[in-house]
Design goal:
The protein is an alpha/beta fold. The chain has 9 helices and 7 strands, in the order βαβαβαβαβααβαααβ. The structure holds nicotinamide-adenine-dinucleotide (NAD). Nicotinamide-adenine-dinucleotide (NAD) binds next to α1, β2 and α7.
């Protein structure tokens, strides 16, 4: 592929876990990859850049808080100045701040809704005009199975992920006629830093709810994200694709 036809791919939360696997998957087509993270240090992001470099990709990493509309708009404007287009946006950054509702403070609610859901508005809004003008683009939002079925202790997280599903369907309807497709992937229980913190008992109880009897890998999710942005899926929009080992059917 010549450089002008390389896709420009932005992955939020690309320093580790699912976002890193998504970036590495897009590296297989030699795309131009930009990752966003908000880790306290650059260690994980540098590791992602190293892994991408091993695949021949000189990727870019930026530490930007996805929950800030102004900062994300500036970030995307900078990218557009440089690349003139954005082909793929993967809204993947996310956090958990779990507590039962009676113990959940306002800060835990606001943080999760801002980082998981408002961020999807911030980034999608920042690229929407460009993608509409291009008459092409692929947006994949990372939701979660708990946005569909709920989970005790995750009222904030489940609400943010259910919000992503509604947002995805509405924006898909708005952009479909101009060739921009918008879908969500809803992972089940995936083996990343986010889930490694769980106590053994909670982890084993969760595995019992998975018909396939095991956690998913970040690569399982990345494959689906990549497929949604491939020609094989170009008549699919407004869908929530579940990748969960049968946890929700
Ligand atoms: N791991 C799972 O089991 C699972 C299941 C369903 C959905 N998900 C979702 O998948 C996505 C990725 O999860 P993961 O398990 O890979 O998480 P992770 O904790 O391994 O990585 C999270 C990423 O998000 C970034 N991030 C966090 N806050 C940010 C902010 N304010 N601004 C910019 N970036 C920020 C981090 O820097 C990191 O790169 C999340 O949206 C998560 O909710 C994960």
């Amino acid at each position: 592929m010549s450089s002008s036809v390389k896709r420009v791919v932005v992955v939020t939360g690309g320093s580790k876990g699912i976002g890193r696997a998504v970036a590495l998957k897009f590296a297989e087509e030699q795309a131009k990859i930009i990752i966003v993270h908000y880790d306290p240090d650059e260690e994980a992001a540098d590791e992602t850049l190293n892994l991408l470099a091993q695949k021949g990709i000189e990727a870019i990493s930026r530490k930007v808080d996805v929950s800030s509309f102004g900062k994300m708009e500036d970030f995307f404007n900078e990218l557009l100045d440089k690349y003139k287009k954005i082909d793929v946006l993967v809204n993947n950054a996310g956090i958990i701040r779990d507590a039962l509702l009676i113990r959940m403070d306002e800060n835990a609610w606001d943080m999760v809704l801002n980082i998981n859901l408002k961020s999807v508005y911030n980034c999608t809004k920042s690229v929407a005009r460009t993608m509409l003008k291009q008459r092409s683009g692929c947006i994949v939002n990372i939701a979660s199975v708990v946005g569909q079925i709920g989970n005790a202790g995750q009222a904030n997280y489940s609400a943010s992920k259910a919000g992503i599903m509604g947002f995805t369907k509405s924006v898909a309807r708005e952009m479909a006629s101009r060739g921009v497709i918008v879908n969500a992937v809803a992972p089940g229980f995936i083996d990343t830093e986010m889930t490694r913190g769980l106590p053994d008992k909670a982890r084993n109880d969760l595995i019992k709810q998975i018909p396939m009897g095991k956690l998913g890998s970040p690569e399982d999710v990345a494959e689906t994200v990549y497929w949604l942005c491939s020609n094989a899926a170009n008549y699919i929009t407004g869908q929530i694709i579940h990748v969960n080992g049968g946890m929700y059917m």
